[in-house]
Amino acid sequence: MNDENLQQLFNLLDTLPNPVTLNELTYDEQGEPYDRIIYTNKSFLKSIGYTMEDIPDDRTWFTKAYPEESYQEYITTEWFKAVDKAKEEQSDLTGFPAKVYCKDGEYRWFNITTQLEHPISDKYRTIVFVQTESPSETKLKLDETKEALMEHEKLLHFQSRQAAMGEMISMIAHQWKQPLSAIAAVASTMKIQQILGAPSEACVNEQSDEILNQIQYLSQTISDFRNFFKQDKEIKQIQAQAAIDDALLIIGKLLQNSEIELRSSYHSQKQFYTYPKELQHVFINLVKNAADILVEKVKENRWIAISTKDEGDAVVIEISDNGGGIDLEIVEHVFEPYFTTKDEQSGTGLGLYMTQTIVEKHLKGSIECKNSDQGAVFTVKLPTDFSNTSI
Predict the structure, then answer these.
(1) Cα 337 to the center of its chain, rounded Å
(2) How is 351-387 classified by DSSP, letter by letter?
(3) Residue 266, domain member (yes or no)
(4) How many domains does the chain have?
């Protein structure tokens, strides 16, 4: 279809009474097909109140039309289910219900029909919006679906929290192992000295101080872990390195016991508002995940590198390792719930899922995973250009 024919099609769409969009079948960076809106007719713009300048691209249209995150999840999930079903039946998709948030602040319900089996051409197809005034049955189904999604989300959070508590208990054991051994050694020495003869006052004082120091360390460890499980009530202004250092207080001993070298390169100077404990949780999850892979796959010269830098209105944190990387076939699935490459005793498949949830939904940032020549690289990008009331 040349430009002249395409313009004629645009003119024809503008004569139709129903809201219609013309979509072009295209492909994203991963090679997955999707519909790109290339034209909206006058009836469509009138019904929702927007202009073409208001919705310059697909993503802007999607977030304006469906501003609620829970509904975005619903509409995406149910839309692709309906599309797949229509393709299996070799038919067009007809009567898909959706509520659209319009520019006047009101929601309007539409039944959506799209050409799957009978497109205009291999490249173009239309999507027709038919406004409806009786969405009660559809709304009931929607509310039930949204409620189920919310319950599922709560379950995932609970399971992830339980898994994190189990991992924290394991880390406490790593932290306490050495000081408990030191206390036992000093106590044994004092007992032997009493049997062989009364120890000197200086010796008793020195040994008592050693025991007290170790007990203080144990007490501080408990405080660190207790603080980790406290929920953040308010956001605070911090630097990325502060949250990383707090995370390493908890997980550092695990790295030492696993003979993993920690390589740090901190270049970010910006302070930003965030939930510190949530961010600490992110770093613990990512470092723990890298440590598990290294222990499983690398026999010697293990290392984890943590770096920070400022990039525009964002702070970028990278956590990488020399564990060999993630298979290309599964790298795009690592943030999915219950997805894990570990055995059932070692992994729940919720750590990276919760990490992504915290970064994207709570901290308003982004996270991605890729491979380097030596291993996996997780990149967290956090915004710094919002006020302390923006989260």
Answers:
(1) 10
(2) HHHHHHHIIIIIS--EEEEEE-SSSEEEEEEEE-SS-
(3) yes
(4) 3
Q: What is the domain range of residue 363?
A: 232-383
Question: Tokens 């250009």 — which residue?
Answer: 385
Closest CA to 105 of 57, 48, 59, 61: 48
Pairwise CA distance, residues 111 & 208, whole Å: 78
Yes or no: say if 126 and 21 are a contact pair by the CB < 8 Å rule.
Answer: yes
Token duo for residue 299: 């026999």
286: buried, middle or exposed (CB in 10 Å: 19+, 13-18, 0-12)? buried
Among 227, 260, 295, where does a domain finish?
227
pLDDT along the chain (391 residues), means of 10: 70 80 76 75 86 79 84 81 82 81 86 74 72 53 51 57 61 67 77 74 79 74 61 77 86 83 92 86 87 88 94 93 85 68 50 80 87 92 66 42
Backbone angles phi, psi at 350, to 5 degrees: -110, -15
Residue 21 lies in a domain: yes
- Alpha-carbon distances of 292 from 164, 308, 375, rounded to whole Å: 14, 22, 13
Residues near 49 by Cβ (< 8 Å), separated by ≥ 6? 102, 103, 104
**Contact present, 359 and 282 (Cβ < 8 Å):** yes
CA distance 17 to 1: 24
Helix (H) or strand (E) holding 151: helix 136-196
Asked, for residue 51, whether it belongs to a domain, the answer is yes
> Is 140 part of a structural domain of the chain?
no
